[in-house]
Amino acid sequence: MSTFFRRLSKATPIAFSHAFRGQSQSNSTHFRFPVGAIAAVSGGISYFYYFSEPNLAHLDQINEETGPKTALHPDKWIKFKLQEKAKVSHNTQLYRAPLGEDAEGKTKYVVRPYTPISDPDSKGYFDLMIKIYPEGKMSQYFSKLNPGDVVEVKGPIEKIRYTPNMKKHIGMIAGGSGITPMLQVIEAILKNPDDNTKVSLIYANVSPDDILLKKKLDMLASSHPNLKVFYTVDNPSKYWVGGTGYISKDMASKGLPSPSDDTLILVCGPPGMMEHVSGGKAKDWSQGEVSGVLKELGYTEGMVYKF
């Protein structure tokens, strides 16, 4: 039995996370899921799993250097075999999943972008954390995949290019699984000793049990003085000590850097949160105008980026 399964057997089930052979990327990728397709891809693999401590991520590296190595391509679908899946939160896991046929008898697909949570410097694998929604066509399809099933991946899709010290202070507002692109930026900043960027994160969830990667975020914040994290939940538990309710103007004013040319606010979360905080993207998927809480606080289009 692999180390992954030995440790998983002792873990408290809490969402699905998947490890694929390939190269990890720091930004979004597209995933397509062909039914019944099988493709053998050799190379190194790492498994993503959680211990019983809430949302503490670990990687178990298995060195296998035989066979060809596969990298993502932004314009070409490449097959990756699902290696393992493990339950990591009560409802959590870019996909493209077949949804039957259209009027002309052609297969229909739904496409979603997704940001890996693995280190961009990792070789031979990438990890995805996906929240399962009852009516989510993509996440429901994904949750039914088993080790050995194949997904087709295309990417990365460049959204925002981060360079060290590009801003003095970066504010982040995340909701649910919208934490994944934030984690990529946070880790890129914290692993670079020459990057002096300050980061302030406000992370909103339904309940304390829904907070993904909390242990990891807390450890990063405790060991890096330039990272501050504030949590807020709609349904607090008896001993909850963070914020309560939706992200308010007061929360954002106290928890984010003030509007300036040296400030950038990143926002990622469910549509309702986006509309409340920053406004959604335009119909053509461009950034669109800033509205909501951030507009009330004086942030302009050049200071806000919506994932």
From TrEMBL:
Its EC number is 1.6.2.2. CDD domains: cyt_b5_reduct_like (cd06183). Gene3D superfamilies: Nucleotide-binding domain of ferredoxin-NADP reductase (FNR) module, Translation factors. The keyword Oxidoreductase applies. One of its GO terms (molecular function) is cytochrome-b5 reductase activity, acting on NADH. It comes from the Eukaryota. One of its GO terms (cellular component) is mitochondrion. Residues 1-163 form the FAD-binding FR-type domain. InterPro entries: CBR-like, Cbr1-like_FAD-bd_dom, FAD-bd_FR_type, Flavoprot_Pyr_Nucl_cyt_Rdtase, FNR_nucleotide-bd, OxRdtase_FAD/NAD-bd, Riboflavin_synthase-like_b-brl. It catalyses: 2 Fe(III)-[cytochrome b5] + NADH = 2 Fe(II)-[cytochrome b5] + NAD(+) + H(+). Keywords: FAD, Flavoprotein, Mitochondrion, NAD, Oxidoreductase. It is an enzyme of class 1 (oxidoreductase). FAD binds at R112, P113, Y114, K131, K137, M138, S139, T180. It is found in: Mitochondrion. SUPFAM superfamilies: Ferredoxin reductase-like, C-terminal NADP-linked domain, Riboflavin synthase domain-like. Its cofactor is FAD. Belongs to the flavoprotein pyridine nucleotide cytochrome reductase family. This is NADH-cytochrome b5 reductase. It comes from Lactuca sativa (Garden lettuce). The lineage of its organism: Eukaryota, Viridiplantae, Streptophyta, Embryophyta, Tracheophyta.
